[in-house]
Amino acid sequence: MKKKAxxxxxxxxxxxxxxxxCVNDVRRMYKCLTEQFKFVxxxxxxxxxxxxxxxxxxxxxxxxxxxxxxxxVQPGDVLFLHYxxxxxxxxxxxxxxxxxxxxxxIVPCDLxxxxxxxxxxxxxxxxITGTRTRDVFSGNTKDFSFNLLSIKYSGQKDEEEEKExxxxxxxxxxxxxxxxxTELLSQKIGHEVKPGLIRTSLFELFGDDAxxxxxxFLDLVNVKLSSNKVGQGSGSLKxxxxxxxxxxxxxxLRVPSIGISPLGQAGKKTVPDDxxxxxxxxxxxxxxxxxxxxxxxxxxxxxxxNGILTVLQQRKGxxxxxxxxxEVRKLLQKQGFAQHPCLxxxxxxxNRPFICEY
Length: 358
Description:
Elements: E1 3-9, H1 22-35, E2 44-48, H2 59-72, E3 78-84, E4 87-91, E5 102-106, E6 114-115, E7 126-128, H3 158-163, E8 170-173, E9 175-176, H4 178-189, H5 198-206, H6 212-226, H7 239-247, E10 278-280, E11 289-292, E12 301-302, H8 303-315, H9 321-335, E13 342-344
Parallel strand pairs: 1-2, 1-3, 4-9
Antiparallel strand pairs: 4-5, 5-6, 7-13, 8-11, 10-13, 11-12
Helix pairs in contact: 1-8, 4-5, 5-6, 6-7, 8-9
């Protein structure tokens, strides 16, 4: 059995969406995998956007590494993916009717969004959910903004126990708002990007390297434009604008909506359904926190990541997926966080060890 991992940390340095703890999360997770789970260094790929010595976590690079790992996997192998960075929700851009749905996505360092249709476990059962709340912390905070994964140290007793109850001196949300996303895309593309044209702008920026859902959407628009079925009412796309973008694209970059793999490639899906376990930082209507207890950026962390690492360190032995998420929830509540980590997996994986046996 081989154990391989991809660890992704996006701090978005120098932008108004900058986070502090995501790269720290990667460093700590690497240590956990090598020391506790006995992963070998050469089988761990690290992608961070604060150090050019590592592969940069762009949308294309993430897809390439995932594709390679999936291509190489053999029955019985373990693949572990850790992502710490912004998540976002992209408003649907229906061409035929109003729709209040959103596509969930993670935000690589170059903004080439990887949407939920690329999720290799999108058919897994929702085993642990939580109460619906939009609060992030249960106390006063400052330096507020949003992020996707986070947690904190817990200790033994007395002094350490009191320490773990302290709220961070600052925190950021790991949920990138649509306004922030369109602002960053506008800066990158050189003209204003409105919420209703996010996918079109992503295709303009990244072409065939864009997420499969972006290409499928543009393909659908192209079909409807050709059939003169695109409406002009409220909520529909501007025909002239979209037509211009599509007409200016190399026909070879236009990908048909049939046969798109989760990695944005034409062809068959190489990984079967019901094959993975997902631990998410919060419910879809909540946000995860990028937190700081001391004000020192080198000590910042993601609430979920820190929680998982803390529980694993305390347990000092195998722990089931269900037990891990429940223990992390208790820890986050004790620390004052209001986010509720969730677990998605098959019934068979519910009580299996997290990652693998030690």
